[in-house]
Request: fold
Amino acid sequence: MEELNLTSNSDSISLDDVKKENIRYPLTAQEVYQLKIRISKAITKALK
Amino acid sequence: MIDFNDLYDREIKNLFNFGMKFSPDREMVKDCIQDVFVKLYTKRDIMEKVDNIESYLYISLRNRINDEFRRNAHVQDCEIDNDQFITDLIVDNDHLERDEEFSKKKVCTMKMMECLSPRQRQIVELYFIKRQKYEEICEIMGINYQSVRNLMYRSLMRMRTNAIKFNIAY
Reply:
């Protein structure tokens, strides 16, 4: 199991556990797409 | 070279699910995911040196949401908007809304919670309302087990003191 400790805090997060979890809060395909567009625009704006 | 398109497509659903453990606010979680990706991209030269970019993504999101929570809690404190806070706390217990004692309990809870700091309120909400275990609270709040126990103890002590002060029988 992959254990990570990347922050200033002393605790770690198991990435394997996170990925094995059932999706309790699903995103719709439309939300996935819209968020991708939002991020793309925000990155473009940030790079200007 | 990080393939951001691929990273997004692979991780977005799990990442959002992970973020929603910290906050019920879907739009806030999306905003935080956006911030994390923007930061990741604008600092991609540095990120190339990170061993596990996926892990970095998840931890960055957790930290970003915690920052947002602290900021919002501070704003709420400034506005003394405890009514909204308690309403949020009790929103999961829909059956209580039909209970004739709901209003009375709400007022009592408000009084008991008034003295808590934002972090203390967060831990009380996570433990008593959202029924999270201590181990899960460690992850959500980004503090270790002993710190969670200490924070919970101090929160309950303050609530108890406040209950005595206001002579609340809850």
Remarks:
- Confidence is low (pLDDT under 50) at residues 77-87 of chain B.
